[in-house]
Write a structure and sequence with these properties.
By secondary structure, the protein is α+β, with helices and mostly antiparallel strands. It is 29% helix and 21% strand. The chain is built from eight helices and nine strands. Strands 1-2-3-6-7 form a five-stranded antiparallel sheet, with helices on both faces. β4 and β5 form a beta hairpin. The radius of gyration is 18 Å and the shape is globular.
Length: 263
Amino acid sequence: METIHRFSVRLLPLSLAQKQLKSSPVIYPTRKLISRREFSNPAAFSTTRKAHTSSTIRRAGWLLGMGENKKLKLPEIVKAGDPVLHERAREVDPEEIGSERIQKIIDDMVKVMRSAPGVGLAAPQIGIPLRIIVLEDTEEYISYQPKKEIKAQDRRAFDLLVILNPKLKRKSNRAALFFEGCLSVAGYRAVVERSLDVEVTGLDRDGQPIKVDAKGWQARILQHECDHLDGTLYVDKMVPKTFRTVENLDLPLAEGCPKLGAR
């Protein structure tokens, strides 16, 4: 999930934001998909993924062309249309959590999320159909947003969370409508209605039980990332007439669109 608010380009220093908005599109070579049979076989997966990664190391997110991801040799961010983003991911075997393979996947996810930059990422977004999410919102990210919006969105900083096999439960009927973005649908935003109070349980990166009670913006991020694990993108839940480019975020909503905020 991108750092999602109406003034998202403010995440970058002005010079970088201007450069990003003016940058030319980047055409990527076709990515080899991993079959279900290969993925069910850890040995085959390891070999296949290694070959895939070495041939498809690319830059991801808003900093396309900035060179940072290439230097770090991070996985690419998979874009909308790739089947891995539209199918249900499988659970991680608890006995596998401590393995080098799973720990590297988690490390890569955190690095990709921070480099993009974003406030959340799901394993399918780097081409891995496993139920793993990472999320983090920082004071720095929040500082680029107008105080009025921070208050309306009930947005607060929180430390890095790594959750495997998350299970999400809505805890109230409270909901809100705000713009969302996604690193897999880069350059666009749309209004999505989300619950304001959720509980997420699962396992941390050490295989220990974890429970997160979240509200406001953190609850929105958790719902967005858990959706990825079920093959759902925010565009599948958006208010259709609100879909727009980042450059058009300041334009008024079309007649008949719901008002932003809690409802």
